[in-house]
Amino acid sequence: MIPKEILKKVRHIEIRTTRLVNDLFGGEYQSVFKGQGIEFADVREYVPGDDIRTIDWNVTARSQHPFVKKFVEERELTVLFVVDMSGSQYFGSGERLKAEVAAEITALLSFSAVKNNDKTGLVIVTDEVEKNIPVKKGKTHVLRVVREILYYKPKGRKTNLSKALEYLHNFLTRTAVIFLISDFMDQGYEKALKILSRRHDVIAIHLKDRREEDLPPIGLVEVEDCETGQSSLADFSRKSLRQMYQQEAVARNEKLDHLLKTLGIDRIDISAECSYVEPIMKFFKIRERRM
């Protein structure tokens, strides 16, 4: 039985994101995510001006009249949300955890996909692939996806993006748009990401929190690693400690930026304590201009 507070959150997310889709994102989504190409639809008689490369020679030979092939855009997309739900996603220095922001972003983009008659699916990952909800169409399916992110209790706390990316490469039978939602606090996934991005349109949504980059000078604090459960005392009043922490965060961010640029993967940076609307709108505008 799903708790009432979860259903209330789902309803709130539905209302908020549906309004955003109707007001802002519907047209932008369709303009930047095209169909998978063109597919054969029918044949018709040749008329002067038709491209001779579209002549169907088999039909032409049988009928003794020239016929050309008709094609239509294959509009329908497979849109997959791969959501990292390891321990670090359950951190937030503001009003929302990163996992809650992930649910809202997934809802926003899923409702945009539904409006354009695309299919959506969900893969929940930690250090294992924990859940795979097959792609389907419709609003009811989107609400199920959102409920799963909010209500699901992960078995693992650690992160293994490499295993998740290898799983996607093996099970996806057709080209997909993949939104990879994570804080990317992991190593050794570069090769798997490179292989996956060769066939699929991968967009990295980098969720972060300001306290993962900047420590407040508040003195002695007991801190816990969300993924290992290990705790220790740290003196945040030490300037050298805060600087080292910040430098590590900058280095981690630069490494991710270099990797994604090298692979040609679009990136959206979203802070859990800020609005996600502006970064996603910026992404749509940049991608639209590029296309």
Number of domains: 2
- What's the overall average pLDDT, rounded? 88
- Rg (C-alpha, Å): 23 Å
Going by CATH, what is the homologous superfamily of the largest domain?
Answer: von Willebrand factor, type A domain
SSE order, one letter for each helix or strand: HEHEEHEEHHEHEEEHEH
Sequence stretches where pLDDT stays below 50 over 5 or more residues: none
Percent range for helical residues?
40-55%
CATH topology of the largest domain: Rossmann fold
Inertia-based shape: elongated
Largest sheet: 6 strands, mixed
CATH architecture group name of the largest domain = 3-Layer(aba) Sandwich
Please count the beta strands (DSSP E, at least 2 residues each): 10
Spatial order of strands in the largest sheet = 5-4-3-6-7-10
Proportion of strand residues: 15-25%
Distance between the termini: 45 Å
Q: From the helix content, strand content and strand pairing, which structural class follows?
A: alpha/beta
In the CATH scheme, the class of the largest domain would be: Alpha Beta
What count of helical segments does DSSP give? 8
